[in-house]
Task: structure prediction
Amino acid sequence: MGKTLAEKILSLKAGADAKSGGIVIANVDLVFLQDTTGPLVIKQFKESGFAAIAEPKKAAIFLDHAAPSPAQQISNDHVLLRHFARETNCHIYEVGNGICHQLVAEHFAKPGNIIVGADSHTVTAGALCAFATGMGSTDIAIAMALGKTWFRVPETFLINLSGSFRKGVYAKDLILSLIGQLGADGATYKALEFGGESLARLTMSERLTIANMVVEAGAKVGLFPSDEVTQSFLSAQGRGDGYKPLYPDADASYERIMSLNLASLEPMVSFPHTVDNVRPVSEAKGIKVQQVFIGTCTNGRLEDLALAANILKGKKRYFDTRLLVAPVSQQVLLQAIEKGYIHSLVESGAVILPPGCAACLGLHQGILADGEACLSTANRNFKGRMGNPEAMIYLASPATAAASAIKGEITDPREVM
Amino acid sequence: MPEAVSKGKAIKLGDDISTDDIIPGRFAHLRSNLPELSKHTFEDLIPNFASRVNQGNFLVAGKNFGSGSSREHAPLVIKMSGIAAILAKSAARIFFRNAINQGLPVLLCDTDQINDGDQLEINLTEGVITNLTSNAKLTSTKIPSLMFAILKEGGLIPYIKKHKDFEL
Result:
């Protein structure tokens, strides 16, 4: 019997025949933490009695969630994390370097890797065919100490993609639509594996957007095969030697097979307060938004900023709608400056925030007021997520976000393109 | 090790309780101060949660409990509140693993058979929940033996201190 991508990677790394439902122990290629989960990782690491990280160069700390720090307690947490990095000789990425998941994609993730991070959106690196999954602080502390962790081998849902996106429809609409179909727990404990003839046309940026959000359907990983798209992304990052092709076996066994025709999709909006509350943009038309937020590990990449800048070019944001833009990493910010996107966005009235999580999780840089609504390109719209339980959060693509910033209400991007 | 057999009152919650419901992200600045952080447990969802819980109560939820962020502070503050176990139809995987790592049992079972305020008896070893109010008996989904071993030691830190490594 053939293997799914998840079974293949876990088998190779565990040196065992990993079959869905079984438990394996495997070495990790990267273990990481960020500034809101990291202090508890360090507490647990010290509590466990280990003095050193098993392989310091396979461990990384990212200061991204509250960066620059908005509160003295978090500033102290940042100091704790910096000290720990110095003590243990692991990597540290400073305030302003960007969001952990993007930096993992830019600098670390390779096909066939196992990556664990103290952040639920660790799944993002599945775009590079890495078995990447989020864990809590104690699991991450022990994975750092031992250089390995245990996994239950997930069953896999195969998502067969066909066709091409129509105008105004993007990867974000695809993954929102899929989450709407699966439900917020529809893929709990499962691997989602993407296949089909559309794959070759999905850029790495689009794959990262899709893999990023699989956890919103409960999935443990979201895996793309490693192909020419993976190879050219790694080469562009100066990491071409990390490439190897990796595909599922033709006779792999899937728990469920779903088909999605990209040409049948339209712009989608996730309504408050759950991500799976997904409806076509037409049903959201006219909902007033006081803030539009373009950024995050879901949609803060160069392609996303280009899309928003092109829609907003020569236009202004609605006078009563704030437009916040946070590039996902320093690399993306520099490229967006070179390409003129930042200039154009600022001319349209955007506030450019430093590379990092920015307004996504309600700690700083765009906390909503009572009764306000925000259209965000992020991955979560839980009640209170953006710092105020009395606010409403809608999720959509950067194109829908840009169009809505112009009109001051949720707008079908095809109306302004 | 959590008590093998324990009795307590059910506090009933709904579906899709996220880790932001359990401990809102806006309190992240308090995460290195757990006693302060825990004062905000369920703040947006259940007013006065802390005063409603008695030591040994059980949280009984619907589907997809603990969805969202990987913050382990979610099971941690629930445990600090005195909750002895969580029962749910389903739980998000990171939350599930985090709770076990904190020595907080999560039992997956048909929680429609439990009402708010019911008296329950939980047998962790057998995975059996008896609703003493209605006399219904529920069986929970078996967890992997490694997870049960971690739970039995009271969490992952005591497990690793004792075994030094994962043992299959």
